Amino acid sequence: RQAPQDRHARDDYQCEGGPSSRTCRAGSGGIRPRPLGGPQDRIVIEPFAVRLATERKPKDAQDEAAAVISAGREAERSRDVRALMRADSRFHEMIYLWSGNVIVQNSMGLNWHHIRRTMAEVLKVPPVSAPVWDEHAAILSALLDGDAAAAERLMRMHIETAFAKLAGPEASLR
Fold this sequence. Notes:
By secondary structure, this protein is mainly α. Helix content is 66%, strand content 6%. The chain has helices at 39-56, 61-78, 81-99, 102-110, 112-123, 126-144, 148-167, and strands at residues 13-15, 23-26, 31-33. Strands 1-2-3 form a three-stranded antiparallel sheet, with no helix packed on it. The longest helix is centred in the last third of the chain and has 20 residues, at 148-167. The two termini are 17 Å apart.
């Protein structure tokens, strides 16, 4: 099963230049831009962002991280999907902000609506969404400890896991 934001990879689209290409030909022969923020983009951008965030986090990072994880765990306990979406968005946006990289912030911000569709699919199913907050906590723990390599690896695994839950284990981001 294909992830909703991954429509560009359907058979009726032919992307030129590989998965990082921003141009795909639709079956009708027209050119349509492919939205940034799909899993192939996220697998590159988010680990990079968390690496930068590890080096550039603010002085109050510990408190902000604790508040985000607390909000996410509370939303998970109450099964409030809207609150889960807000907390998940807050987690990822916090990483983008802490990265201090305007390109990361702008690129991911402009395409957040594409990412939200995927998140909604993952977060609305309790057995699928439950591990998300443990994954987020592990990423933040590594980040706050200054272990950029571990934070980057955990972020990559987080994105790959979410993609596999939606697209099936045989799907690949590579």
